[in-house]
Request: fold
Amino acid sequence: MKRTFLKSKIHKAAVTEDDLDYEGSLGLDESLMKAADLLPFERVEVYNVTNGERFATYLVKAGKGSGTVAVYGAAVHKARAGDKVIIASYAVLDEDEIDFHVPKVVLVDEHNRVKEIK
Reply:
């Protein structure tokens, strides 16, 4: 049997921009992607701490060290610049992988720079 577990998350990042007319996705600082072991076009779940909205989308790489967390397209109706969000990715694990799995949790500062990785 396979089960789905949290792979990594970025906790309470601030949305820095929103653009309803962009094709869609979530722009994310390359440094944050690396810290959380995320790749371009990887599916993520976004949980808006500010308003309780939730949505799924995929990632596009933004400038390294930019602090960018940009919400694009229809997702703008769920999160706006200034909102705090949790960005989570999940992995499907075999039973023999579960005991050894430890998710990566990335905590950020007020400028979306990595403060701590747990």
